[in-house]
Amino acid sequence: MERYAQALGEVIADLKLIKEAVSKSDNIIRFIDTRGALKGVLLGGGLIIALFSLAFYVLVSYYGTFAAIPFNIRTTLFILIGLAWCIIGYLKIFNILKGARKIREGITISTLLAEIYTPILLALIVPYMLVIILTTIFLGSNGHLNYIVPALAILFGLLIISMSLLFYMKAFYFLSLWLIATGLLFLFTATIFHPLIVLVLTFSAGFILAALLLFLNLPGRRS
User: Fold this and answer.
1) HSE on the CB side for 158, CA within 13 Å?
2) Residues 6 or more apart from 65 whose CB is under 8 A from it?
3) What is the pTM of this model?
4) What is the pLDDT of residues 182-209, one digit of tens each?
């Protein structure tokens, strides 16, 4: 019995060495528990969008227009939004780095970012981001403000589908399909609903539902 236990221990040790060797030769993000790292980030992001959308909706309803909201109130809210997203960004990096150090001890933030944002991934992301920025500028400058959120939902949904090959999570597929479906729906009904309501029903609801799927720990990440 002791001999079998020793053999089992040797096999486990060999598997750990193989896993570490493969992780050093491949993108480390493939071996990180991204579900555990991102579920809190998605939930926090969805709640932040919902909270500040509600705040601006109440203020616009009270003052009549966005421009009529006192400057100090608008400035305070924008500062709070910036701080909230900085915290979410920090949590994302911290959680992923924590998971990466379970695979490869001593890995730094710069090394992790270099492994995640490879030339291939940047070649995928940069064109999408340029299209997103130009689409927002075009719609905003032409007075089509109601169409900005639906268009962004569709574009971000397509981007997430393209990036899902890196994460292998059903929640990401769900999020991308949610953004595309709701984006298309509100693209054709943009004049009926308030943009802030559309923002909540697209991005906020999508993030929260995707986070709930991750908290349910459904299978879907390839090991």
Assistant:
1) 14
2) none
3) 0.78
4) 999 999 998 899 999 999 999 999 999 9
The first and second tokens of residue 207, run together, are 């993030």
* DSSP-derived secondary structure for the chain: -HHHHHHHHHHHHHHHHHHHHHHHHS-GGGTS-HHHHHHHHHHHHHHHHHHHHHHHHHHHHHHSSSTTS-HHHHHHHHHHHHHHHHHHHHHHHHHHHHHHHHHSTT--HHHHHHHHS-HHHHHHHHHHHHHHHHHHHHHHHTT-GGGHHHHHHHHHHHHHHHHHHHH--HHHHHHHHHHHHHHHHHHSSTTTS-HHHHHIIIIIHHHHHHHHHHHTT-S----
* Amino acid in position 35: R
End-to-end Cα, the chain, rounded Å: 31
